From TrEMBL:
Lineage top rank: taxon: Bacteria
SUPFAM superfamilies assigned: NAD(P)-binding Rossmann-fold domains
Protein name, entry field: NAD(P)H-binding protein
GO MF term list: protein-containing complex binding
CDD domains for this protein: NDUFA9_like_SDR_a
Domain NAD-dependent epimerase/dehydratase, chain residue ranges per copy: 8-208
InterPro entries, sorted: ComplexI_NDUFA9_subunit, Epimerase_deHydtase, NAD(P)-bd_dom_sf
Organism the protein comes from: Bradyrhizobium pachyrhizi
Stored Gene3D superfamilies: NAD(P)-binding Rossmann-like Domain
Pfam family, one: Epimerase
Length: 303
């Protein structure tokens, strides 16, 4: 599909996934409007002089702000995510209320394509507040914007991520690596660039029927297996020690007393759930990149 000057507004366009989506859209020739509370952050990431990019101030909690950001847009992407709650920034306020607000204003503005980024395993009936909010968010988005496309990424990895990088940093600092339980939970990590590409392909394709695309990598790992792969490629030989999940819950509860907890109960809950996807990337014509290939590139850059 030719872009024909069709503007795409991206909420969360300065985040880990969002800025990759912006880059892929820019590479396709789309004018991109990056909507965020701190436009200066976007200018520092992308540079202030790119004529394809427009930086606008927007607060997803404010209806008028969202409406202004969407005015005249052909498509919209909601890539806003929250993993640690802070004051009014709760899972429900971000993943449900604000998701509905973006969908409602996109519908009102005549937006033709809405892509909503959710998460693998999203379930409105889940006991996990995070997973439940993701599931409820999907429901309200599709009820509000009937043609919305949902993308459910598995845990994502890539340079400057919060996943493989965290594992690697811990392995380098700790000769004894504490695992979540016995490390048996299943993961199917997705390369962040693949998920960004999937988003753009959904915007570009001629088919308009709403879809739910689950995006995972080419291989399923146990958590322990993934830690061992990271350690091996980094030339490390740690001792892996299983730590009961009850201990992790207690540590998370204690950590949450502080303003910026290093561990939350939500994160511990997520590490108890298998996150395996259907072949959404392949269905979009994308050959997903494996952890091993990208990890090697990450290691060569960081030394």
């Amino acid at each position: 599909m030719a872009t024909n000057g069709r503007t795409v507004t991206v909420f969360g366009g300065t985040g880990f996934l969002g800025r990759r989506i912006v880059q892929h859209l820019r590479d396709r020739g789309f004018p991109v409007r990056i909507a965020s509370r701190h436009p200066a952050r976007g200018r520092s990431q992308f540079g202030p002089h790119d004529s394809q990019l427009v930086f606008v101030q927007a607060d997803i909690h404010d209806e008028r702000s969202v409406a202004n950001a969407l005015a005249g847009s052909y498509a919209a992407v909601n890539a806003v995510s929250l993993y640690v709650e802070h004051w009014r920034e709760t899972f429900h306020s971000v993943h449900v209320e604000s998701a509905q607000r973006v969908a409602a204003q996109a519908h009102r503005a005549g937006v033709k394509r809405l892509v909503h980024l959710s998460g693998i395993g999203a379930d409105a009936a889940s006991q996990s507040r995070y997973i439940r909010a993701r599931g409820e968010g999907e429901l309200v988005v599709r009820a509000t914007f009937a043609g919305a496309h949902i993308i459910r990424p598995a845990v994502m990895f890539g340079p400057d991520d919060a996943f493989l990088t965290t594992i690697l940093n811990l392995l380098r600092r700790l000769p004894i690596y504490p695992m979540f339980g016995r490390g048996s939970m299943k993961l199917q990590p997705a390369y962040v660039e693949d998920v960004a590409e999937a988003t753009v392909r959904i915007i570009q394709r001629a088919e308009t029927q709403p879809t739910i695309s689950e995006c995972g990598g080419p291989r399923v790992y146990s958590y322990e297996e993934l830690v061992r792969i990271v350690a091996h490629q980094a030339g490390l030989a740690p001792i892996l020690v299983p730590i009961p999940l009850a201990v992790w819950h207690a540590l998370a509860w204690a950590s949450e007393i502080f303003p910026d907890p290093i561990l939350t109960r939500n994160q511990v809950e997520l590490m108890q759930i298998d996150t395996v996807s259907s072949p959404g990337l392949i269905e979009l014509g994308i050959s997903p990149q494996p952890v091993e290939a990208i990890l090697q590139k990450m290691l060569s850059k960081c030394g």
